[in-house]
From TrEMBL:
KW tRNA-binding (keyword) present: no
Record protein name field: FAD-binding oxidoreductase
A Gene Ontology biological process term: lactate catabolic process
Keyword Hydrolase attached: no
Domain FAD-binding PCMH-type: 50-222
Organism from which the protein derives: Sulfitobacter sabulilitoris
Top-level taxonomic group: Bacteria
Protein keywords: FAD, Flavoprotein
GO molecular function: D-lactate dehydrogenase (cytochrome) activity; D-lactate dehydrogenase (NAD+) activity; FAD binding
Pfam families, per the entry: FAD_binding_4
Length: 469
């Protein structure tokens, strides 16, 4: 068997035989399919990553099978990339160095629903976990809008926030990730338990420093959720209403998003349900808070277009409201036109509609704002995931500079290095744990720009760099 990636010098036939009885996939077209994620949102990442493929896929079903796969990979010095649902946007799950892809979706049991938490195998789909929780009156504190195909391990390793974050904070906030079981990639893979704040050693490391096999996450009481949409004549009014709604303690929202009217023109499934050419506010809130929502929207100068219980939504054959939030908003536009892309931009706190109004004309007609509201340290913050009509790197840099000059920090969505986006600088705690759990540096190492410069150091020396920076 030859190398599909063209980057490895491993006998992949012998490798596959050594993995038995673990299921493997070696058909090139299927291996190539599993080498991709949603990096194509970015034309820059698309150009850089579209020709990067793995060589073989393994699908372990149990922690013991996972241990076996990792021991074989270690013995062959094989580069390894973990893959859940493959819904990441930055090529996190792309095997840049070729090698083995370990797909976790066969390790998908919901193990325990406890008092305020759920424990599941890493490959469990977020939607399946919610389905197990809801009959017991609970739900996940937050989940990505990709919950139907995203795994809980992929969310912890690659995600950051989602539906629920306006109430319960980001994934990294205290109490949201309760515990992680993580296997090392060495001669005899061992299992490590990370609890409480120590889970941050592994969270958002893109699978470079250990293999998550089990996740315990916080749960919250479920409610009778109603999907709500309201429209506004001016974007800054939609944004102001979003802020008023998110901080109103009498309304228990689990989602608040706003989108420029030009983006809504790409939502054909909402035709006839929301007013045309208006700026949109999307929310999910409990049935008993709908009257207060209506009053708030009227007071903020908006118009309530839609309030639907889950049964009414199904009856009306409409998508979930969260299909118009987070990176699903971008997806709706990309479905119609692949020239669109996006960016990730922080906003000064507290949210200020006047700052948004000042910034909009500076950005130009190729940047259409879309904000998500979330809670950080108890305060409401917003971040912008604008649609950008891509015309080249130079214009993108210019757009980034306009945001930054106005005090809106850009967390670049067009880089496949873990340090390039949200992190900005190296996370030496992540890299110290990489040294401990992945001594040969086989786990998704290309994704860390800093790894090469520290891999010769001991774990303690790498960790010391964290306090020095
Ligand atoms: C339309 C759309 C909407 C989105 N909305 C959101 C959102 O609301 N919030 C959000 O945070 N993200 C969002 N994302 C990004 C992504 O969907 C989520 O982060 C999702 O949870 C990733 O899960 P996954 O199983 O697809 O992970 P994958 O893409 O398969 O993997 C993500 C990263 O985690 C690593 N990994 C996977 N499993 C393991 C494991 N068991 N151990 C160690 N490392 C592992 C992979 O190597 C990769 O680096 C969105 C993406 C799209 C395309």
């Amino acid at each position: 068997m030859t190398s599909i990636s063209g980057k490895t010098d491993i006998d992949w036939g012998a490798f596959a035989r050594a993995l038995a009885p673990v299921e493997v996939i070696n058909t090139p077209v299927l291996v190539k399919k599993r080498s991709r994620d949603f990096f194509w949102y970015s034309p820059i990442l698309n150009a850089e990553l579209k020709s990067c493929f793995g060589d073989l896929v393994a699908r372990p079903r149990t922690p013991d099978e996972m241990r076996h796969v990792l021991a074989v990979a270690y013995a062959h010095d094989a580069p390894v990339v973990l893959r859940g649902g493959g819904t990441g946007n930055y090529g996190q799950a792309v095997p840049v160095n070729g090698g083995l892809i370990i797909e976790t979706t066969a390790m998908n049991r919901v193990i325990e629903v406890g008092d305020g938490f759920v424990r599941a195998e890493a490959g469990a789909l977020m939607a399946d976990i919610n389905a197990a929780l809801i009959p017991q009156g609970r739900e996940m504190a937050m989940f990505p809008s990709t919950q139907d195909i995203a795994t809980v391990g992929g969310f912890v390793a690659g995600g950051s926030a989602g539906i629920g974050s306006v109430a319960n904070g980001a994934l990294r906030d205290p109490g949201n990730i309760i515990a992680l079981k993580v296997q090392s990639l060495d001669a005899t893979p061992r299992e490590h338990l990370f609890e409480g704040v120590d889970t941050l050693h592994i969270h958002h490391a893109w699978g470079i420093n250990g293999v998550i096999t089990e996740v315990s996450l916080r749960t919250v009481p479920t409610r009778d959720w109603v999907g709500c949409m309201a429209t506004f004549d001016r974007y800054e009014d939609a944004y102001a209403a979003g802020h008023a709604l998110a901080r109103d303690e009498a309304i228990a929202c689990k989602l608040v998003s706003t989108a420029d009217a030009r983006i809504c023109a790409y939502f054909p499934r909402l035709d006839g349900h929301i007013r045309k050419d208006r700026h949109l506010l999307v929310s999910l809130l409990p049935q008993e808070d709908v009257a207060a929502f209506r009053a708030l929207i009227t007071q903020e100068g908006g118009h309530v277009d839609l309030t639907l219980t889950e049964d009414e939504r199904i009856e009306a054959k409409l998508p979930h409201v969260f299909d118009f939030s987070y990176n699903h908003t971008t997806l709706q536009v990309l479905k119609a036109d692949r020239k669109a892309t996006y960016q990730q931009v922080g906003c000064p706190a507290p949210p200020d509609p006047r700052a948004i109004a000042r910034l909009r004309p500076q950005l130009g007609d190729d940047v259409w704002m879309h904000h998500e509201f979330a809670r950080v340290g108890g305060q409401i913050v917003t971040f912008d995931l604008p649609i950008i009509w891509f015309s080249g790197r130079a214009r993108l840099d210019q757009i980034n500079a306009i945001y930054e000059d106005n005090g809106f920090p850009v967390h670049d969505a067009h880089t496949w290095r873990v340090e390039g986006g949200g992190l900005k600088t190296a996370d030496y705690r992540h890299l110290a744990w990489k040294k401990r759990l992945d001594p040969k540096g086989l786990l998704n190492s290309a994704k860390s720009a800093a790894w090469d410069s520290v891999k010769h150091l001991s774990a303690a020396e790498i960790e010391a760099l964290e306090t020095a920076q």
